[in-house]
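Fold this sequence, please.
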Amino acid sequence: MLVFLAYTSNLLKPRTPTPLRPLPAATLLCNFTSKKLMSQSTSIPKKQERVRDHGYDNYMEVEKKTRKVLKFQSLILSQPNGTLPIPRFDFLARRLGLGFKQNEAGAYLLKFPHVFEIYEHPVQRILYCRLTRKALSQIEQEKEALNAQIPDAVTRLRKLLMMSNTGRLRLEHIRIARKEFGLPDDFEYSVILRYPQFFRLFDAKDTRNKYIEIVERDPNLAICAIEKAREREYREKGCDAEDIRFSFIVNFPPGFKIGKYYRIAVWKWQRVPYWSPYEDVSGYDLRSIEAQKRMEKRAVATIHELLSLTAEKKISLERIAHFRMAMNLPNKLKEFLLQHQGIFYVSTRGNYGKLHTVFLREAYRRGSLIEPNDLYLARRRLAELVLLSPRKAKVDRELVSFRNREADEMEHARRDYVENYFGVEGKVEQDGEVKENLDLDLVSDIESHYSDDDDDDFDETMGEKEGDCVTE
């Protein structure tokens, strides 16, 4: 009874309102970030998990090796005779900060025997290094390809300047990215000053920086690569013109999870109209939501066109950032590119995660360029020399030594032949016509790859000569 009375008295007591407790900071941060995950201008999520594509990562692993090999090549070619003593080479490699300890640089050259050749100096009796014939041939091939496509490089540079807001870019930014755009090292003289009808070079008064400015905009060049791809797809596949009017070619990496709502968001984003990268947007009001949508998609088109103008359809993220202010690109470029992984791929391989390389996905298939050019093929040839096994180089050296031994044996056979069939007179006349005729015959036999039938004919003729000698 007492327990019942105590329970009813507790029920009849007036309840005081419980004070509101503040939510934890982690919960508020989670709710805030969940709202910010969606872009304010489009419905595609801003934060996306990066999915690796091993084809592009393997490409960058090979390029990491070729990048270091190119530094060694330039170091050797900077010498007057194109040769360098190994102790001197080791000292210069450590002084330039290539990441080698003492006596490691010379040992590193042994990994690439198809590019570097180490030999002993005949007089000084110390080891020297030089480039192989294959490496020198590759360098000449790249130079020829670079000079042959200078007219295309002029067009690419004109389109690049037309994409900027003011029609001008810093000379230093172009110089840093000259290799990606297929420009020679002396492009300031061989391209800019050589074509004054297209380019103007001047110094800024405030910053004292050199700028390249386009003389006149050509409307025939204001056609993006994606527009040509849309037209080609429309003609080949016969798609609806309204569906591909503002769309991009999207190829998601393998393993990328595409949900129902994400697919719908991409479908809506593909139909958002935008301004061309070559169009001047200074006269538009960019404060509305519709203008933000168009400017965001215009940034995608600008980076797409920037990659299309490169020789290998790839460029580092840091070099794209040089053109950010001139081309109205977003501040956080990496997050922006990860938002569109079906169009671009960002690889962190090649420099221990410090370098970010952006690939144009539609231009590559299984880690190789779909439409290769001569400059790309010349640079890939160096990668092939780097990846060749050292065992093959050992076999090549053995073949060379075998040919030398074979030539020595043929020389001894020639001397025996002269002594046996021509006697003392033949020895005396070796400096005359007899030696010249024999040398011509033997050299022709050594250089020609005769068959077994030729050996039989040779034995028959030798037997006839012996028979004639016996009858006499």
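Residues 225-368 form one domain. The first strand starts at residue 83 and ends at 85.
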